[in-house]
Amino acid sequence: MVRFKTRKAIESKYGNAPGPIKLAHDLGVSLPTAYDLLGDGTSRERISLVLINKLCAGLGILPGDLFEYVTDRKPRARTEATS
């Protein structure tokens, strides 16, 4: 599973997480998006390239700093091809 780790990136820039209103203003995102970015990173399934660009520019980071790969706890069931 790929996790979105914006809170860690935000805290590295600000020292600790700013309020959502300041974050929305600083990054040029909507207030609901700012709340989402300050969450635990598990609620977002999709992210636009526009938002990735705003985060990278506003936080002074690279796209790779926003994501981490964590192996799934349960292995997926394998399906065998039938002939």
Description:
The chain is mainly alpha-helical. The mean pLDDT is 85. Helix 2 packs across helix 3. The chain has 4 helices and 2 strands. The chain has one domain: 434 Repressor (Amino-terminal Domain), CATH 1.10.260. Helices cover 42% and strands 7% of the residues. The radius of gyration is 16 Å and the shape is elongated.
Described by the principal axes of the CA atoms, the overall outline is elongated
Number of domains: 1
| Number of extended strands | 2
CATH structural fold name: 434 Repressor (Amino-terminal Domain)
Calculate Rg over CA atoms. Answer: 16 Å
Strand content: 5-15%
Mean pLDDT: 85
Q: How would you name the CATH homologous superfamily? A: lambda repressor-like DNA-binding domains
Highlighted features:
83 residues, mainly alpha, 434 Repressor (Amino-terminal Domain), 2 strands, elongated
Write a concise synopsis of the structure shown.
The protein is mainly α and 83 residues long. It has a single domain (2-69), classed as 434 Repressor (Amino-terminal Domain) (Orthogonal Bundle).
Layout of helices and strands:
Blueprint: E1 2-4, H1 6-14, H2 20-27, H3 31-37, H4 49-59, E2 67-69
Antiparallel strand pairs: 1-2
